[in-house]
Write a structure and sequence with these properties.
The structure is a single chain. This protein is an alpha+beta fold and 202 residues long. It has 2 domains: 88 residues, 2-Layer Sandwich (Alpha-Beta Plaits), CATH 3.30.70.100; 92 residues, Alpha-Beta Plaits (2-Layer Sandwich), CATH 3.30.70.100. Helix content is 27%, strand content 34%. The chain is built from 5 helices and 8 strands; from the N terminus they run E-H-E-E-H-E-E-H-H-E-E-H-E.
Length: 202
C-alpha cells in the first residue's frame, strides 16, 4: 500500500467547515481514508488526512483529480493552503488499519542527511521489538517518495502524560531512540493532533 498525507491550512474560525468539505472530497475519490486530524500543538489551524492506495496508479489518478480541480478538497483559494506528500511504509511494519490508539496523535517528520534512509530503516527494524511497550503506539512509519529525503511517523496515545512517561522510560533504559538513527537527521518537526469524529483512527 502507498500513502498520501494531505495538509490543509484553514482560517482559524473555519476549521470545522474545511474539515467537513475535505471529508466530502475524499468520499468521492479513490483511496481509503485512514486518519483525519486537526492540529493542536505545533502549527495550528490545519487538517491532516492520511489515505492509503493499493496501487501507484490509483494514487496518481487521485493526484490528477486534484490537479484538474479549481477547488481540490473543496477548498477555496488552495494556493499556499494545501500540500500533498506521497509515502511508502517501512517494509517491516504492517499497513495501517482502523484502530483506537487514544485521543492524542503525534506526527513527527525527520528530514534525513544524504544516504540516511538505509541506516534509518536498519536501526528502526532492530529497535521495534525491544521497545514494544512504546512502539505498540506506533501507527505507521513511512519514507517519502517525493521532495526532500524524510520519514514521517505517526503515534497514538491516550494522553500526553502517557507519551512523556513512555519516552522517558525507554530513553532511560536505552531501548529508544533506535541506535544510530538520530545521527541520520538533518532536522525534525513534531505536531500533536486530535482525531476528527469521522477518522477511522480515533
Amino acid at each position: 500500500m502507498l500513502y498520501e498525507l494531505t495538509t490543509i491550512s484553514s482560517p482559524p474560525l473555519e476549521l470545522t467547515a474545511v474539515s467537513t468539505a475535505a471529508h466530502n472530497w475524499v468520499l468521492q475519490g479513490e483511496g481509503r481514508l485512514l486518519g483525519a486530524w486537526r492540529t493542536e500543538i505545533g502549527e495550528l489551524h490545519q487538517i491532516k488526512l492520511l489515505r492509503g492506495f493499493e496501487t501507484a496508479e490509483a494514487l496518481e489518478r487521485e493526484r490528477l483529480r486534484v490537479l484538474m480541480s479549481a477547488r481540490p478538497f473543496n477548498v477555496d483559494d488552495p494556493a499556499g493552503r494545501l500540500s500533498m506528500e506521497q509515502y511508502a511504509r517501512f517494509p517491516f511494519l504492517p499497513d495501517v488499519e482502523p484502530s483506537a490508539f487514544g485521543r492524542f496523535y503525534e506526527l513527527r517528520t525527520y528530514y534525513l542527511k544524504p544516504g540516511g534512509l538505509a541506516p534509518t530503516l536498519e536501526a528502526w527494524e532492530q529497535a521495534i521489538g525491544p521497545a514494544h511497550d512504546y512502539t505498540q503506539h506506533l501507527v505507521i512509519n513511512m519514507y517519502a517518495l517525493d521532495g526532500l529525503p524524510r520519514i514521517t511517523h505517526i503515534w497514538g496515545f491516550s494522553s500526553l502524560e502517557e507519551r512523556a512517561a513512555l519516552r522517558a522510560r525507554h530513553y532511560a533504559d536505552g531501548t529508544w531512540p533506535p541506535k544510530g538513527a538520530p545521527q541520520q537527521l538533518a532536522r525534525a518537526t513534531s505536531t500533536i493532533c486530535i482525531a476528527e469524529a469521522y477518522s477511522p483512527l480515533g
